Amino acid sequence: MSDQIQSVAEQVRQAFHARPGHAFTHTELYQALGADGVLQMDLRARILQTLRYLVGCGYLAKHGERAGATFRTTGQPMTKQHVGKDAAAANRRERERRRYEERKAAGTLASKKSNRTARVDSRAAMVPKPPMAAPTARPVAETVEQFRARGGKVQRLTTHWEQMEQAA
Fold it and tell me: Which of 55, 73, 156, 164 has the smallest C-beta neighbourhood within 10 Å, fewest atoms?
């Protein structure tokens, strides 16, 4: 018979149970669980997630911020009871049955045809719309000679220093 695989949460709780009065830092906890090394980044992320969960449940207390944070047991038992696979499947079936009964009582159970129509409508909404027509390109700027050749008149404005020279 094979040994059962422990979850990360169980491993973290065992580490805290082994040293009841100790305040673990992230690094100490990683070392205690063997999460050292470059290839263990996924395990480290799961440990952080587990620590957040255990603090939220009231099983652990967090003191400090970021790398300097320490975690200590509060003495409160875990509030969530673990359910076996068979019981979880039975609970899931019961929830689905209740949801079905609620939808049936509310009259929101739809026929297959209306479901198909809703699916087609939702897919039509996902089809990208064609892009709008691009604005017309501006003509390339013309030179003064080209402008004069078309019959344009050029007015020359004096610069500031030319005005100062004229005034003097």
Answer: 156
Order the strands of the 70-73 sheet from edge to edge.
24-25, 70-73, 60-63
pLDDT, tens digit, for every residue of 66-117?
778 888 888 887 766 677 888 889 989 999 999 888 888 877 665 555 666 7
Distance of alpha carbon 155 from alpha carbon 124, whole angstroms: 58
Tell me: the pLDDT tens digits for 52-64?
Answer: 888 888 888 898 8
Whether 102 and 88 have beta carbons less than 8 Å apart is answered as no
Tokens of 13: 């709780």
In single-letter form, the type of residue at position 159 comes to T
Other Cβ atoms closer than 10 A to 71: 23
CB of 23 closer than 8 Å to CB of 63: yes
DSSP string over 118-135: HHHHHHHHHSPPPPPPPP
Decide: 67 and 26 in contact? Cβ < 8 Å.
Answer: yes
Count of CB atoms situated within 10 Å of the CB of 33: 19
**In the structure encoding, which two tokens stand for residue 141, read together?**
């700027």
Q: Which two tokens stand for residue 63?
A: 């003191």
For the chain, the farthest-separated pair of C-alpha atoms sits apart, in whole angstroms, at 109
